[in-house]
Design brief:
single chain; 16 helices; mainly alpha; elongated
Length: 308
């Protein structure tokens, strides 16, 4: 599930915590890394689990409209296509999915207001109207609809962002990645495949035979960065004499340390790939000037001081 880019981000965050907390131990760092990695898959599961509650919200709306004192013709004869979608019962009746959701205590029960707002928003979408107007029903069409819901309603949703922030300190940053996996799962369900829990690391996914272990990569990266933290920090300060150590942004320092650790520990990875990866990460997690700073320092240290 987790690819090298997101694993580098998780390693960077752990080392950033080390920059901010000098008393942090390696065991603390590895514990934080493990929690962060597992949290991404938990978020994926939480998002997938919305299918049943969202379908129930739609059914509740229809039943409430039918029970009105003087319902309209449309309220008496509603379009039941979404309420009868095949995805919600497929997941709801899947013993593995249900067992994992229950074990991890992932539930939408406390978020009925969000579900009401979500369904109301969906009802006003052109793509939902097209789905409801199509007389043909199929698992593939239902799965495609849920992909559109994930892509159009969850991404950038501030109400959802508040929920995720309350539930886990890791979840907001991982939302887009988890959503991409929700869509992958929906596409597989639409093709008739049974739901399966994704392996935590991409190297463990089916079809990845012979690929180097992603778990070994990220743990090796964190350990190398942590164990050589003082050494790498000194190297950074040595090549930035015009900068007081206190003026170097903590995020930049963590990114550079991770880049040096990767270049040191994984000589089989092209150093240009390593530099590019951490420069890309800097665009999202550091200052506007960080891209050039991180690129320049890493290039200088890796090439001129022969960290490789």
């Amino acid at each position: 599930m987790l690819n090298r880019r997101i694993l580098r981000i998780k390693a960077f965050k752990v080392i950033f915590a080390r920059v901010e907390n000098k008393t942090m131990s390696l065991s603390d760092a590895e514990f934080e890394l493990e929690n962060s990695c597992e949290a991404t898959r938990d978020l994926y599961l939480f998002l997938m689990a919305v299918c049943g509650p969202l379908t129930a919200e739609a059914r509740s709306r229809i039943e409430a409209a039918r029970s009105k004192f003087n319902p309209t013709h449309d309220e008496q004869h509603p379009n039941m296509k979404f309420v009868r979608n095949a995805v919600a019962p497929l997941l709801g009746n899947d013993p593995d999915f249900g067992r994992i959701i229950k074990k991890k205590k992932l539930s939408w029960d406390d978020y009925d207001v969000f579900l009401r707002h979500l369904y109301e928003s969906i009802r006003n979408r052109d793509w939902f109207a097209e789905y409801m107007a199509d007389g043909d029903s199929s698992l593939a069409a239902d799965a495609e609809l849920f992909c559109k819901i994930f892509e159009n309603e969850f991404s950038g949703n501030e109400e959802l962002s508040d929920i995720l922030e309350d539930l886990s300190i890791y979840w907001n940053d991982d939302l887009e990645y988890a959503l991409s996996w929700c869509c992958r799962s929906m596409e597989a369900l639409g093709r008739g495949a049974l739901w399966t829990l994704p392996e935590l690391y991409m190297s463990d996914m089916p079809g990845s035979v012979g690929k180097e272990s992603d778990k070994a990569f990220v743990y090796g990266l964190v350990r190398a960065a942590f164990n050589n933290f003082e050494k790498y920090s000194s190297m950074v300060y040595d090549v930035t004499p015009k900068w007081d150590s206190g003026r170097i942004c903590a995020t930049d320092l963590a990114l550079i340390i991770c880049g040096l650790a990767e270049a040191d520990r994984f000589s089989n990875i092209d150093y240009r790939t390593t530099i590019n990866e951490f420069v890309e990460i800097s665009k999202f997690y550091s200052t506007p000037d960080s891209r050039s700073f991180v690129n320049g320092v890493l290039d200088k240290l890796i090439n001129k001081t022969k960290v490789l």
